[in-house]
Amino acid sequence: MAEVDDLRRLVQQLQAENADLQNQVATLRQASHHQIQMPLQRGENGSSHQPQPLAAKLPTATDPFQAQFEAFVAHAPSLFWITDAQGKMTYANSAWLAVVNLSEQEAIGQSIETLFPDALAQAYLQNNRWVLDHQAVLETIEQAPLPDGTTHTYLVRKFPVRSSGVAIASVGGIAIDITELKQTEAALRDSEARWQFAIEGAGDGLWDWNAQTNEVFFSHQWKAMLGYEDHEIGTSLDEWDSRVHPGDKTECYADLQRHFSGETAIYQNEHRMRCKDGSYKWILDRGKVVQWDEHGKPLRVIGTHKDISDRKQTEIRQQQMQIILRQSEVTNRAILNAIPDLLLRVGRDGTCLSFLPPVDAAAGTFLPVYNHLSEVLPPDLLHHQLQRIECAMETGELQVWEHQIEKHGQLCHEEVRLAPCGDQECLVIVRDVSDRKHREAEHMQAVLELQNTKDQLDLVLQASSEGYWDWNLETGDIYFSSQWKAMLGYADHELENSLAMWESVIFAEDRDAALRLIDDYNSGRVREFSITQRLHHKNGSTVHVLCRAIHQKNVVGKVIRMVGSHLNITAMVTVQAALETSKMQLASVLNSSLDGIMAFRSVRDKTGAIVDFEWLLSNPSACTTVGRTADYLIGKRLLDEMPGNKTDGLFDLYMQVVETGEAVQRQFHYSHDGIDTWFENIAVKLGDGFAVTFSNITPLKQSEQALQQVNEQLESRLNELKQRNEDMRLLGKMSDFLQTCLSVEAAHQALAALVAPLFPGSSGGIFIFSDARYRVERVAVWGTAPSSTAEFIPLDCCALGERNLHQVDLGCLGLQCSHAESSQAIATLCLPLLAQNEPLGLFYLSAPHISESVRYLAHTVAEQLSLALANLHLRETLKQQSIRDPLTRLFNRRYLEESLAQAIQEAQRHHHPIGVIMLDIDHFKWFNDTYGHAAGDRVLQAVGQLLLDSVRGSDIACRYGGEEMLLVLPRSSLEVTVVRAEEIRQAISQLQMSYEGLALGALTTSLGVASYPVHGLTEGEVIRAADAALYQAKAQGRNRVVAATVPAAKVAPSSGAS
What we know:
CATH superfamily of the largest domain: PAS domain
Oligomer: single chain
Largest sheet: 6 strands, antiparallel
Structural class: alpha+beta
CATH class of the largest domain: Alpha Beta
Number of domains: 7
Radius of gyration: 58 Å
Shape: elongated
Number of helices: 33
């Protein structure tokens, strides 16, 4: 019990540690959340929604709030820093400098490659480029080695920083040391593992009782202890109450109430609980209130069940053994009190150490010994007894002898038994055998008289045909008469008179039977000795004899002699054997028959009408069927023993057989009198009665039923196969359709209609990772009651975390994923959509029950969806790569020509204009020559991004060649297109470009505008018109928009018409 108490204390300690660690993790998470949000608060409260940029050196501000914020940044425990686009440090607060163990002079102006190891520096620069390219905040968790040799974990947030009037882009960073948080989380996991190991290692069942709702959580071990599976026991208190032994329940609740009232520190009770198989186990039930309300009433009680059945059985056996020992002690004392012997404990020199007189000591048969044997023994006997004591001491062997001694004037015979008892004393038992000696003398006289009688008897037996034998059991001598030997074909001298000779001529099995009968007869278990035996004749034949004997007892009732005779009954045995053979042949016919056979005699009333039938015969098969023996049935009446014959009409049928003499055959089901069997019987008239044979055809009927069940199962399997084929057809249809989809969005729109027919009666959805992969969004839903939120983070789904199937049935709703609606009593199934072991999304299904076949089908659907969606994603990626310029992300020239041709065809059908803008960056060659081609690429990227941000959904922005770019604006007139071109020109002129810390200066562009159908009816004509207008803008001084002139062929008809 001490080990169990230690284990309980360990569990309570682990639970306390678990609660403390959870509080610490929550506090650290809340603190880290505030630290991460604090630098963005100024930007959120100001007029702009963009983060407020930090200056390179955080110059002194006149705004008091700004000054407080800068002081906070400088002295905050979090790490703040700023690097320019090339990765050089431009600012670091004191916390950052302290971590890297550098002064401000040593850090500011240095590049990241100089300050950090190469791998860490390259990762840092890669993240900087991402922030600058996307102009977005990047949050990561990184590990960094510190100068002191330790490695810390940081939550890092990087964001773009722009200072007013400065075109150089910088990257700001905030880092929070979450090493302690990670260690705390690890400690929490270790604590939970220890707590779980302690519970499972104890082998005890755990229960958790909510005293307000009377709901109880029973652990798996608690249920298994009673032989139950998890799903077989609910959460009601009645699950425990109904299984407690009625005799123990009152004391259980009394101990529980004493704990509630504060009388006991813990609740503890030993009681019996009923197991699933109906047996009872002894349980040590221990628990404690862990939560009270404000009125001192218990709210929550937690405890354990320990199986102590083995201990209880041991206690019961010990109690039984104590009772047996007490009874044995009483019995031994009673035996000692009743023993008719004198008991002495004598020392080596004859000193009497203890004396226990016999029960008849008062009669004076034994003399009391108080101090020494010399008080009662004459010198010669004393000397002999001291010698015997010495011999017993030296050899350790029991010494037994008899002597004569005169007591009270009479000569008595005593038997002395002396046994060593230790090194210096002996136990002496003295018994008066005077009566036995007297009886022995009388016996010797009787033997002499018996010998004389024997001689006389021999004379009589010589004249008879029976053999005679005489066996002295005391001496072992045995005598066989000459007639006995002649019966076996031997002369008197050819067989010796010995027991060995008798054993050699008798059959071995008959010898054993004879010896057992001798023992039973002499011990009084049988009253007479009579047995038939088989003996071997000299010629090899078998002699059958009838052996009879009587025994003789002495005065004390002991058998000392047996005398018997042998009568040759071989001829009679031969006749009996033939008769038995005939009986056996008849019995074998009845006994070997597998069918039941019965015979009956009619029982009639005074009028001669049959009222019943009396049993005459019943073979073993029939007896087995009715469950009664033939000895019991013979003479009994049919309706008394089996009244069901009257109910089912069998009695009337048998009456018809007796009255008409016509045999009948019938199949019927008999379900009375403890019989539940199908029979086929044949009844025929037999005298004034009938005989009936019946066969058990239950296996045949069962086979027919089994065949019917097999047919039903085959039909069910056929239906399942049809359903499987239908599922495969729908699955193939879904796969074919998805292969024909031109885009992922088109596939998403069709998924619900394709998947829903595969899972009738269920609800579900398809979820896909967002582009940033921070969330999972629902793109398709079916069913009437989808039980999942429309979007969630990947950690909310166990299947995405484990990349494996996650199913939750009705009995385990507590294991549902966080995105599932746990309030609904339904089963759920989550399957990750994987492509090359990378998650694309989630297949989610909810239904009242999810079978194995549904789970298999869902797995197949998920695999098909994964493959189809991955192919569509790959197809779109390849398509985008084939039609877009890799540098500017604008459409390429080939895509432009195809799209413009299609747009002109559509404009011709619907009679709407198309605007075309040809754009060229002024002095672009000067940028390349001055700053290098990389700077030129940066300019092209910036202009391309501006065009992408400026166009509508139907507009087409393309890189036409070199620094020339072209925009197609469907449904835009020439006037609208000129306005759009001017807006783009102004937007480009406001771009602040820099490269490697150098300002590239303002950009200007020249734009030429043309329109369909004003400047041409084909794509070539319109593009050439826009290109010509572009060159006019160049010629007029650049940085302007020029519309193409209308060709003369089109102006003249227009003028004439006006």
